[in-house]
Structures are given as structure tokens and as C-alpha cells.
């Protein structure tokens, strides 16, 4: 096994061994607290520009299953950090090992890292840029390279992960998804802005009774209005929401014309489109075990999360009301407009990976559309 090095921007050095591609990549180092779902995490477009550390100890034991990917064209992460990689997998659905999958797509993986120490460091010092390398092991040389990187806010990663052309989506959730199913109702058409959409969002929309059309992130609002959908969904995606100026412009023009539902980056884009502000969290929320309180029903849901930025709902000055709150740190997780048919959440109701507590939001979207029409 070849040696691999991880160096953070603050000079912290971790040494381990490689189980992925023989290469070097720079990204923002974050940690994810999910115990399973590493394949869905790897293929989540929201992780573009980031190196993901898994806090669970053994990773790779169930291999890679082609049907479980969340986007096309392989992993979207810049690198993958684990405590102990399991090359021998046991899963009748798997087709290859995690290591061979990373090698196939040119993604570095590093194991034998003290991920507990790394996670505690990131919680204390905050998420920061880092570099994984199997080619260079001089800490000073690697530190110089990572410090030359301008950071993720300097890039529009949405343009790298969005679809190149419009398409229709028809696949539903799998039978073992414990979600409510729409029956005996008129199907409605929704247009999804692909800022880095996860496939499970599309599956849940179809299961909830929608006909789904996905459009590229830079599609003008006028073109979507001309399609005359019943509703519009602004998807999740990577990076700083302020870089997605075309998405903010489209959202501003669409509000009031059609019912709009925003998820994660889509939630942040709506906040900016209404004149509010977003801010960067110290180390972000990444995992499948985050408790969120629905302020309307009082229900506490365990949610899947993947974001580094948050909407300051107070900056929207009475345009919206708070609908969800994160019970870990009190950050604002959802909002709805006081007049227009617009609502959004910061967490991921589609899970993939994670619990299905919040899938009812897709049906709430349908109810909002019905009331609007």
C-alpha cells in the first residue's frame, strides 16, 4: 500500500496510506457523521470542491452498487478520508470495491488516519482547505500548495455539476423506501433547476405524484415560465450560494409566478433572491443524524444534512416566517413566504443516505401547488 499525506491549511499534518487513485487533490476538508451511505455521499454533487472525512471507523464493507449512485459521472468529492478501509466487501448487490471505484474515477483515498483527532480539530478550528497527495510527502511543499488555493468561495462549482441539457425523469423510489405514495390524484408537472440535484430528490418527486422535467442551472426564468409547469423546485448544489448569480436572478423572477420549493442550495438561493443574507458555518452540517424541529407542527425529525452555508432568516425582515430549526446549534433550517407560495428547507428531505422523516415535504409541495391553482 502506498503512502498518502493529508495537510491542512493551518499546517496540521496527517500521514496514512492510499486506497484510491495515485494523485493529488486540494479541497475544503469537512467531516460526515453518517454510519452508512458512503456511496451516496461520494456521488452527491453538493460535495464538489470538498474532501470528505467519515467519522465512522470501517468504510467500504458493502462495496459499490451501481443503482445507488446519486449523480452521473462518478464521485464528486475531491478526496476521501477514512480510519480503516475495508477492501473485502460483502453485498450481493455490489459490483466492485470502494477502492477500485475511486481509482477508476481518479479520486484519492487515504486510510489509517486518526479521524477522531481530525474531526475534533475541524470542530475547534473550523473547516479549512487541505491537500491529499500520494505523489509528494514533504509537508512544507504540500502546505505551500494548499495555501495558494483561493478557497471554495472563489469558484462556481454549480457550473461543473449541472446537467448539460434538459431531460425527463420517471423513476420512483425503490419499494423499500418507507415513504408515502401518491394515489388517485391528478399528476402535476414540476420543473427542477439542477444546481447539483441528487437523484433521490427526483425519485421522491415522482413518488409524490409529479411529472418531472430537469433543466440546466443557467436556464432563464422566462424559458421555465413558458413551459408552464405547476411548480418549480430549486435543488441542492455545491459551493457558496453568492456565486450562483444566475440562479438568484431566476428565483427572483419566478417567485409569485409559480409555487417554488427550495432544498439546501435552493433554500439559500431563495434567501438571497428575497434580499436576505447567507453566512458560512464554522464546520458545516454533514451527516444523517441531525435533529430538526418543525416549528409549525412541533415535530422533531432526524434529518440528512450537507451544507456549509446558512440563510439568516432575520435578514429577510418579515417577508418569511421560520419553519424549521436545527436542534444541535439552533441554526435556521427552513422558511416560508408570508404571502407567496414559496417555502424551503436547508436539510435534505430526500435522504439518500439518511432517515426518511422529512419526505412528507414533497407532498406538502403538492398541497401548496393544489392550493395555488
Report the radius of gyration as a whole number of Å.
20 Å
The proportion of strand residues reads 25-35%
Q: What would CATH call the class of the largest domain?
A: Alpha Beta
Q: Judging from the principal axes of the Cα atoms, what is the shape?
A: globular
CATH topology name of the largest domain: Rossmann fold
Q: Percent range for helical residues?
A: 10-25%
Structural domain tally: 2
Question: What this model shows, in words?
Answer:
The strands form three sheets. This protein has a ten-stranded mixed sheet with strand order 10-12-11-13-14-19-18-17-15-16, with helices on both faces. The chain folds into two domains: 3-154, Glucose Oxidase, domain 1 (3-Layer(bba) Sandwich); 158-372, Class I glutamine amidotransferase (GATase) domain (Rossmann fold, 3-Layer(aba) Sandwich). The N and C termini lie far apart (61 Å). 23% of the residues lie in helices and 31% in strands. The protein has ten helices and 19 strands. By secondary structure, it is an alpha/beta fold. Helix 8 crosses helix 9 (265-273). The model has no long low-confidence stretch (mean pLDDT 95).
Keyword list:
373 residues, alpha/beta, 19 strands, Glucose Oxidase, domain 1, Rossmann fold, 23% helix, 10 helices, 7-stranded mixed barrel, 2 domains
Task: Summarize it.
The chain is an alpha/beta fold and 373 residues long. It has helices at residues 38-42, 98-104, 115-125, 139-147, 158-161, 199-207, 221-227, 245-254, 265-273, 360-372; strands spanning 3-8, 13-18, 24-32, 50-54, 58-59, 79-81, 84-85, 109-111, 128-133, 167-169, 188-194, 210-216, 231-234, 260-263, 277-294, 300-312, 320-326, 332-337, 342-345.
Amino acid at each position: 500500500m502506498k503512502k498518502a499525506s493529508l495537510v491542512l491549511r493551518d499546517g496540521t499534518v496527517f500521514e496514512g496510506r492510499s486506497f484510491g487513485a495515485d494523485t493529488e487533490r486540494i479541497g475544503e476538508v469537512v467531516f460526515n457523521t453518517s454510519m452508512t451511505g458512503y456511496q451516496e455521499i461520494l456521488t452527491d454533487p453538493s460535495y464538489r470542491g470538498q474532501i470528505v472525512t467519515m467519522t465512522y471507523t470501517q468504510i467500504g464493507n458493502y462495496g459499490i452498487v451501481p443503482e445507488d449512485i446519486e449523480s452521473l459521472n462518478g464521485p464528486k468529492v475531491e478526496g476521501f478520508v477514512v480510519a480503516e478501509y475495508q477492501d473485502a466487501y460483502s453485498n450481493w448487490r455490489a459490483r466492485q470495491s470502494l477502492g477500485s471505484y475511486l481509482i477508476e474515477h481518479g479520486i484519492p483515498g487515504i486510510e489509517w488516519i486518526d479521524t477522531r483527532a481530525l474531526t475534533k480539530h475541524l470542530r475547534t478550528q473550523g473547516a479549512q482547505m487541505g491537500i491529499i497527495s500520494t505523489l509528494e510527502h514533504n509537508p512544507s511543499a504540500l502546505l505551500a500548495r494548499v495555501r495558494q488555493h483561493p478557497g471554495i468561495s472563489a469558484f462556481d462549482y454549480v457550473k461543473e455539476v449541472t446537467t448539460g441539457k434538459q431531460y425527463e425523469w420517471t423513476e420512483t423510489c425503490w419499494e423499500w423506501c418507507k415513504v408515502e405514495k401518491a394515489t388517485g390524484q391528478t399528476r402535476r408537472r414540476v420543473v427542477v433547476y439542477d444546481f447539483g440535484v441528487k437523484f433521490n430528490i427526483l425519485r421522491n418527486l415522482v413518488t409524490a405524484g409529479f411529472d418531472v422535467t430537469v433543466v440546466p442551472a443557467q436556464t432563464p426564468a422566462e424559458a421555465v415560465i413558458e413551459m408552464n409547469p405547476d411548480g418549480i423546485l430549486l435543488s441542492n448544489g455545491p459551493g457558496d450560494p453568492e456565486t450562483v448569480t444566475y440562479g438568484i436572478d431566476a428565483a427572483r423572477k419566478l417567485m409569485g409566478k409559480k409555487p417554488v420549493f427550495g432544498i439546501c442550495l435552493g433554500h439559500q438561493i431563495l434567501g438571497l433572491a428575497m434580499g436576505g443574507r447567507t453566512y458560512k458555518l464554522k464546520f458545516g452540517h454533514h451527516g444523517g443524524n441531525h435533529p430538526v424541529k418543525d416549528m409549525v407542527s412541533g415535530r422533531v425529525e432526524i434529518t440528512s444534512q450537507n451544507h456549509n452555508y446558512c440563510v439568516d432568516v432575520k435578514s429577510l425582515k418579515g417577508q418569511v416566517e421560520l419553519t424549521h430549526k436545527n436542534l444541535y446549534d439552533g441554526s435556521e433550517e427552513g422558511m416560508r413566504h408570508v404571502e407567496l407560495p414559496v417555502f424551503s428547507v436547508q436539510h435534505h428531505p430526500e435522504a439518500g443516505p439518511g432517515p426518511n422523516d422529512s419526505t412528507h415535504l414533497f407532498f406538502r409541495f403538492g398541497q401548496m401547488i393544489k392550493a395555488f391553482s
